[in-house]
Write a structure and sequence with these properties.
Blueprint lengths: L1 H28 L9 H12 L3 H9 L1 E2 L2 E2 L1 H14 L4 H24 L10 H6 L5 H4 L2 H21 L4 H15 L8 H11 L3 H18 L17 H12 L12 H25 L12 H24 L13 H16 L11 H39 L42 E5 L2 E6 L10 E8 L4 E5 L7 H7 L7 E6 L6 E11 L2 E13 L12
Antiparallel strand pairs: 1-2, 3-4, 4-7, 5-6, 5-8, 8-9
Helix pairs in contact: 2-3, 5-8, 8-9, 8-10, 8-14, 9-11, 10-11, 10-14, 12-13, 12-14, 13-14, 13-15, 14-15
């Protein structure tokens, strides 16, 4: 008995560790600065506060945002606003990331029904809780929307697979939340109807179909088509198919600097698609609808429903996003679907596993999962740091731009965090060309969109109080632009015992600046020590059209 408890304790630590590490990264690197669509939540608070009557306030919550109706995001933003007194974007990130625990709980509930030893559950959190998800993790609105909708959809599928009446009613509630968290929540409706039909639960399938029709009608009531994506001119079926496979295999986007990066994801995507097809066909053929002598278990139904959802999402995202390029399908905010596909296929295979005959196999499986967790965290940690630097530059540039002043609506919406660099911002008004010239070598390459600045010798001492920014200064405006840092590959890390490479890079896009001539400088912060230098170079911005992204919010 003592040995069993000790073994379970060890496996418990292995299960808990990746979750704890993930939330440690969140607590250390989350920052209360809005990004892009986050600003729409401020507009929502104003609209909600100024709305006359209950109906107007409800309308503000369910109002369309791009192609979505993000009532879940808005509801919790209201709660945070009233509890905190302002919108605290880190709280929104935590709320969104807590739904990942809900997803893990769903998989644990399914796993328990397999009666496998707890050791076989360990790979699931190791695969799931890692920094490939960084873009959603550290973005308030995206965390709630993109993680939240997956939780509600998987919860909906789990409940539909249960024959308990109370679970069916709860599934209808989850269907509502899935619909009004993100637009792709609707994609779960036909999947759930198929699962009910396969169980020969025809009455429930009709009821759920009617509820789905009502939710879809309400969703598209007074719906406006958002601005479209770039046209798909010249994109053939072959490119779409390869993009689809790359999307499915994006969890194995582990070679970011290799020319074979996309090919590896396509290979894994093809394997995942083949496995998904075989498993889905076998499960469908063994359903009560087709095979009267056998009935699918709730585990098998959940796996089938999850595979349909994840593969279907891959088709939709690929078709709607392929015009942005193949690499765009490997962006962080989409990788949760490939990661969950990996987890679902693992669960499908291990649920049929003969534990007594191959009990030893759990050790290499867990070992591979630990290695996967380490590599994904290692590769993507730099993205977390660079993203934090980008958000901080947003805050600096709002402070430097006298035209950006919060509108006084009698409501305090947001409180900008303070940084050691804030006290130095006033000194940036001094002409940068009169500062000492920076002596380290900087290369500059010009392209149609702007210039790319790179240095390979500066020794980075990276932490939350150190940073390097590029000063872009004209007679009228001063900008403080972020730099991107690079890490050694794993082999270089083993050889040098260092994570960060020397140097930095900065991509200065013309669209970031007003027209004019700008002098370039560098601002180096090491704790409280802040130095600025002139790069002895300039940038001329002469845009014909000041493009503005169209929105419906």
């Amino acid at each position: 008995m003592k040995n069993i408890l000790q073994k379970n304790a060890i496996w418990g630590i292995i299960i808990f560790f990746p979750v704890a590490l993930y939330f440690y990264f969140l607590s250390e690197y989350a920052i209360n600065i809005p990004k892009w669509d986050d600003h729409a939540l401020k507009a929502f608070i104003v609209e909600f506060q100024n709305a006359n009557g209950f109906a107007a306030k409800i309308q503000a919550i369910f109002k369309q945002h791009n192609e979505h109706r993000i009532a879940f995001d808005r509801f919790f933003t209201l709660i945070v606003f009233y509890l905190h007194g302002t919108i605290e974007y880190r709280w929104l990130m935590w709320i969104g990331n807590f739904t990942l625990l809900g997803i893990l709980f769903i998989f644990f509930r399914v796993f328990k029904k397999t009666n496998l030893p707890i050791a076989y559950f360990a790979p699931i959190p190791l695969i799931f809780f890692q920094l490939q998800l960084w873009e959603n993790t550290f973005w308030g609105m995206a965390a709630m929307q993109n993680f939240g909708v997956v939780f509600f959809i998987l919860g909906l599928i789990y409940l539909i697979c249960s024959d308990k009446k109370s679970h069916f009613y709860l599934a209808i509630l989850f269907a509502f939340f899935a619909t009004y968290t993100s637009g792709n929540g609707i994609t779960a409706f036909p999947i759930c109807i198929v699962l009910l039909v396969l169980q020969k639960r025809f009455k429930e399938s009709i009821v759920f179909g009617l509820v789905s029709a009502i939710l879809i009608f309400l969703y598209f009531f007074h719906y406006q088509m958002p601005p479209s994506n770039p046209p798909m001119n010249g994109i053939g079926i072959g490119k779409i198919a390869l993009g689809f496979l790359s999307f499915l295999g994006s969890a194995f986007d582990l070679l970011p600097y290799s020319s074979g990066r996309v090919k590896v994801t396509i290979l894994f995507g093809a394997i995942f698609l083949a496995l998904s097809a075989v498993i889905s066909v076998l499960l469908a053929l063994n359903s009560k609808l087709i095979n009267r002598r056998r009935d699918l278990s709730s585990i098998e139904l959940f796996i089938l429903g999850s595979l349909m959802f994840l593969i279907g999402t891959g088709i939709v995202v690929t078709y709607t996003r392929i015009s942005f390029g193949e690499v765009g399908l490997l962006t962080s905010r989409y990788k949760i679907y490939s990661v969950l596909l990996t987890v679902t296929l693992y669960l499908a295979i291990v649920s049929k596993f003969n534990v007594n005959r191959f009990s030893w196999v759990v050790f290499p499986i867990v070992g591979i999962a630990i290695l996967f967790n380490f590599i994904t965290n290692f590769i993507n940690f730099k993205e977390v740091v660079n993203f934090r630097n980008q958000l901080m530059s947003f805050s600096y540039n709002w402070a430097l731009d006298s035209s950006v002043q919060p509108k006084n609506n009698g409501i305090k919406l947001y409180e900008t965090p303070t940084f050691p660099l804030d006290n130095h911002l006033s000194q940036l008004k001094n002409r940068i060309q009169f500062s000492p010239v920076w002596l380290e070598k900087v290369t500059k390459s010009v392209n149609s969109n702007g210039i790319f600045i790179q240095n390979s010798s500066f020794k980075n001492n990276v932490n939350n109080t150190n940073s390097v920014n590029i000063i872009v200064q004209s007679a009228a405006r001063t900008y403080l632009m972020p730099t991107q840092l690079s890490n050694f590959p794993v082999s270089g890390f083993v050889r040098t015992a260092k994570y960060w490479q020397n140097g930095f890079a900065s991509d200065l896009n013309y669209n970031e600046f007003d027209n004019g001539k700008y002098y370039l400088g560098i601002l180096i912060q090491e704790g409280k020590n802040i130095q600025q230098y002139y790069l002895n170079d300039s940038l001329i911005v002469n845009k014909n059209i000041n493009s503005k992204v169209k929105t419906n919010w």
